[in-house]
Task: inverse folding
């Protein structure tokens, strides 16, 4: 009788543990699901923001918009780039790490060569997406006349 009682309690413990795990409350509190967050960014690109100052038509400019979706340690970026009035064809465009007024290294290559109205997707690390959130990144467009960049805009969180 005592053996049956012990076996019954053991079976009950296993069933309770299984029910808790199925309900998502496992012993460690982990459900295995990863939360996602989405953020929107925008940059208005002008020659005045580029460092060093370019030899560029004053009317040159552009707009960059992006949506970043974080999922775990990675993030996906979907973007659109439009520009006008450049001194020549757009040779390349990048997202760079750097505060306003400071040139920095490439974080993500967008296109090369580029055309206005181009859209694309890329992958960022969690650390890179945090740089974007802190306004520590910019977009610029390079031309043959201005290989260091002709127009530039600091990325800003929208909304």
Result:
């Amino acid at each position: 009788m005592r053996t049956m009682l012990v076996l019954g309690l053991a079976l009950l413990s296993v069933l309770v543990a299984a029910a808790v795990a199925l309900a998502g409350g496992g012993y460690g509190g982990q459900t295995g699901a990863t939360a996602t967050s989405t953020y929107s960014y925008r940059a208005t690109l002008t020659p005045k923001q580029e460092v060093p100052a370019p030899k560029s038509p004053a009317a040159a400019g552009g707009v960059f918009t992006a949506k970043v979706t974080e999922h775990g340690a990675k993030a996906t970026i979907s973007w659109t780039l439009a520009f006008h009035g450049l001194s020549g064809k757009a040779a390349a465009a990048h997202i760079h790490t750097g505060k306003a007024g400071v040139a920095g290294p490439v974080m993500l290559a967008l296109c090369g060569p580029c055309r206005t109205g181009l859209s694309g997707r890329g992958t960022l690390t969690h650390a890179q997406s945090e740089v974007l959130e802190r306004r520590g990144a910019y977009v610029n467009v390079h031309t043959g006349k201005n290989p260091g960049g002709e127009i530039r805009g600091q990325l800003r969180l929208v909304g």
Summary: Confidence is low (pLDDT under 50) at residues 1-31. Helices lie at 2-22, 126-133. The domain at 36-158 is CATH 2.60.40 (Immunoglobulin-like). The chain has two domains: 1-33, 36-158.
